[in-house]
Amino acid sequence: MLAAGAIVLGTTTIAGAGLAGGRGGYHHGGWGGPGGGGERLFEQFDANQDGLITQAEIDEVQSNRLAAFDQNNDGSLTLEEYQAMWLDAMRERMVDRFQAHDDDGDAVVTVDEFVDSYSSIVRRLDRNEDGQLTRDDLRRPRDRGDDDEDE
């Protein structure tokens, strides 16, 4: 059970390291480069800080993380313990999204700031430009008007 929890959290943690918050949603980031997901990967898993990550280091970090949330020390996580671990792992992403919504940086997300994040959804996805979305708009490629040039 310990290994299964470590694998699940490891996937979540690694996936989270490759994502960066952006206006209107998450965008996949690269693993390399300074300050990118790769740096976070090394910060998290290069336990001996030798510039290399081994599977043994990943396993040790994840086992220690699971143990930190195993409140009853039985070597496995209950749903409540797992929830605490999950919320801790997701907190950084949540803070990033909060900051993305907080346009003026006053540590408060107003209705206008929150709604503004979603203000271009219909315009972006409305394939036939009728001002409303249908399931068909979401299924077919956007008509770019290229056919008009041939006439």
List keywords for this structure.
mainly alpha; single chain; 5% strand; 151 residues; two-stranded antiparallel sheet; disordered N terminus; 2 domains; 55% helix; disordered C terminus
Q: What's the order of the H and E elements?
A: HEEHHHHHHH
* CA-based gyration radius: 21 Å
Beta-strand residue fraction = 5-15%
Question: Which bin fits the share of residues in helices?
Answer: 40-55%
Tell me the count of domains: 2
Q: What's the total count of β strands?
A: 2
Instruction: Give the overall pLDDT as a whole number.
Output: 77
Structural class: mainly alpha
Shape estimate: elongated
Largest sheet: 2 strands, antiparallel
What is the topology, as strand order, of the major beta sheet? 1-2
Total helical elements:
8
Low-confidence stretches: 1-35, 146-151
| Distance separating the two termini | 66 Å
Structure description:
This protein has helices at residues 2-17, 37-45, 55-69, 79-101, 111-116, 121-125, 135-139, 147-150, and strands spanning 19-22, 25-28. It is mostly helical and 151 residues long. A two-stranded antiparallel sheet has the order 1-2. The protein has 8 helices and 2 strands; from the N terminus they run αββααααααα. The longest helix has 23 residues, at 79-101. Helix 1 runs parallel beside helix 4 (79-101). Mean pLDDT is 77; it is low at 1-35 and 146-151. The chain starts with a helix and ends with a helix. The protein is elongated, with a radius of gyration of 21 Å.
